[in-house]
Amino acid sequence: MKTLLPCLLLAIVAITSVFAKGGPAINDKCPVDGNAVRIIYRIFTEKGNVAFCCVDCMSLYEKEPSRYPVVPKKPGS
User: Fold this and answer.
1) What is the Cα–Cα distance from 6 to 29, expressed in whole angstroms?
2) CB burial class (10 A; 0-12, 13-18, 19+) of residue 25?
3) By C-alpha distance, which of 32, 23, 19, 21 is closest to 58?
4) What is the pLDDT of residues 32-43, one digit of tens each?
5) Domain coordinates of the chain in residue numbers?
6) pLDDT tier for residue 17 given thresholds of 50, 70 and 90
């Protein structure tokens, strides 16, 4: 048990650092279809992290980002 606890803590720290990369998303709605975003689908851009609702929307945005304007979150949300 004493050796298991440090391993679990290390795993939690590693997972947290992966998901925290680059900070939170700058948007609440998918720029492609307007659905609520899921933070696991995101792209790191010069504007910040842009999140999407699905991998299909993320792929469409990557091909032609100028076609899909990103609406930033309202302050305090």
Assistant:
1) 38
2) buried
3) 32
4) 999 999 989 999
5) 23-77
6) very low
